[in-house]
Please model this.
Amino acid sequence: GAVVSQHPSRVICKSGTSVKIECRSLDFQATTMFWYRQFPKQSLMLMATSNEGSKATYEQGVEKDKFLINHASLTLSTLTVTSAHPEDSSFYICSATVAGGLQETQYFGPGTRLLVL
Amino acid sequence: AQSVAQPEDQVNVAEGNPLTVKCTYSVSGNPYLFWYVQYPNRGLQFLLKYITGDNLVKGSYGFEAEFNKSQTSFHLKKPSALVSDSALYFCAVRDRSTGTASKLTFGTGTRLQVTL
Model:
């Protein structure tokens, strides 16, 4: 149980285009999803916290107009990188928590590798 | 503020030998502690967590971790390492006193290399 999927797993796009990444909880309802960015050989950097039906909370230094997050349902959150540039190339990982209690564990998706040319 | 330190960038161990990956933490309240493993080009897989109760926590793939409050540590251990355990390991902490869905703080990761 507690499986999280991401789509696509890998995407290559031209500079200036927008890219949408989907994060789905497959076998549970997730009231909260998190979006992380990971640079090579580095730890995960939290970008934003996404709650179903409300606006995402962005971490300091993360441009909310560039990284649009929509948490439309209890099983789906999307991250759209708008007007992508080469410096946005990275590994993006989402996670989801099972609804209820303080003890929830974050379950991670397999990640999406974005390369902006 | 909460933080996690993983003092070793890499740990090398021979297959069959015991392994330890170190983690220390800092939180203002009581901690929830987690270990995750990451294989190349993959997301993080949950290994184990400490919430409350026994200080020795057993998790997936034969891994265990011991919560030591006085030393603020949560070291990951396995009695007998396998080559397939080679991966990147992350320790993470969350302050128990904060609300639901509070963010995790991750360590910088420790690469485990198990050789024959």
Notes: Chain B is about 0% helix and 50% strand. The two ends of chain B are 41 Å apart (CA to CA).
